[in-house]
Design brief:
The complex is a heterodimer of chains A (113) and B (110).
Chain A (H helix, E strand, L loop, with lengths): L4 E3 L2 E4 L5 E6 L6 E7 L5 E8 L2 E5 L7 E4 L6 E5 L8 E8 L7 E2 L3 E5 L1
Parallel strand pairs in A: 2-11
Antiparallel strand pairs in A: 1-3, 3-8, 4-5, 4-9, 5-6, 7-8, 9-10, 9-11
Chain B lengths: L3 E3 L4 E4 L4 E7 L4 E9 L6 E6 L4 E3 L2 E6 L4 E6 L8 E9 L5 E3 L3 E6 L1
Parallel strand pairs in B: 2-11
Antiparallel strand pairs in B: 1-3, 3-8, 4-5, 4-9, 6-7, 7-8, 9-10, 9-11
Classes of the chains: A mainly beta (113), B mainly beta (110).
């Protein structure tokens, strides 16, 4: 069964460093998403991406964040200068159309020291 | 008011019990409704979509009341493997993003 994959599974970084989280969505999916979940809190939407551009973003997704689909298979989330409060689980999701089920990847645990 | 509100629990029930979770949402323009399941430190996985007429999938029954902006999930004959956090999830009209509740934790005990 096709699945969303994410790398790395765990990333540890120093405050102020740049990180890139990688996702490979399911191959025939057209809509891509990033969510985050701070430990003990709810899942929060960050950004959605369709047709090679951002279609929606939340107030969390400020200028420190960017997304890219560099090669038609990978979908990346970059955090330019990490803060302690960026420590969270980051989930990538994809779906075939705008309304179908969103399939989530296993997540990347980001720890900012 | 929170966009999606759930009782955090935990609900501790014995195997075989029936348990019900409730969820309310604040935006009447909400269009699609789901229950997701999340195991500890894992990704959310779709349990079932929720339709206006109500729907059932094996031991799981979901109900939607648009007038009261209320969604429910009923689990019959609880199994140990049902232990997880159940997330109420809403898709607002005109938005692609999912809005998650904080989840209700279920612990099924032998």
């Amino acid at each position: 069964e096709p699945e969303v994959t994410q790398t790395p599974s765990h990333q540890v970084t120093q405050m102020g460093q740049e990180v890139i989280l990688r996702c490979v969505p399911i191959s025939n999916h057209l809509y891509f998403y990033w969510y985050r979940q701070i430990l003990g809190q709810k899942v929060e939407f960050l950004v959605s991406f369709y047709n090679n551009e951002i279609s929606e973003k939340s107030e969390i997704f400020d200028d420190q964040f960017s997304v890219e689909r560099p090669d038609g298979s990978n979908f990346t989330l970059k955090i330019r200068s990490t803060k302690l409060e960026d420590s969270a689980m980051y989930f990538c999701a994809s779906r075939t159309d705008g309304r179908g089920e969103q399939f989530f990847g296993p997540g990347t645990r980001l720890t900012v020291l | 008011r929170k966009e999606v509100e759930q009782d955090p629990g935990p609900f501790n029930v014995p195997e075989g019990a029936t348990v019900a979770f409730n969820c309310t949402y604040s935006n009447s323009a909400s269009q699609s409704f789901f229950w997701y399941r999340q195991d500890c430190r894992k990704e959310p996985k779709l349990l079932m979509s929720v339709y206006s007429s109500g729907n059932e999938d094996g031991r799981f029954t979901a109900q939607l009341n648009r007038a009261s902006q209320y969604i429910s999930l009923l689990i019959r004959d609880s199994k140990l493997s049902d232990s997880a956090t159940y997330l109420c999830v809403v898709n607002l009209a005109g938005r692609r993003a999912l809005t998650f509740g904080s989840g209700t934790r279920l612990q099924v005990q032998p």
